Amino acid sequence: MAFGIKRKDLNAWKSAVRHGKVAFLTHYWLDDRFPHANTVTKAACQDMEQLIAWGEGHGLKKEWIHVRKGFPHFDLIGDSQKRILQKERSLGNIHEYGLYIDG
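== YneQ ==
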């Protein structure tokens, strides 16, 4: 279950994705399959080849891409979420959701 998404952030993410950018949308999330995680980041891009290449650069497999409502994306969860957001310097997401890497 997703919650805590601000409409302005969602609209900005959709716009960036539609314009061919790799964009991030982080929100609170609960799923019994991932009891250790309380946030997820959707890393999306309308250009599937660009998204695949971006994902490979972070060790993600193209088979992990979800295509829902015209927004192809990877779901970033847990340690990989923190590592990738830090590497991508998505500092707003890191600070807002407390996604700091220990050490």
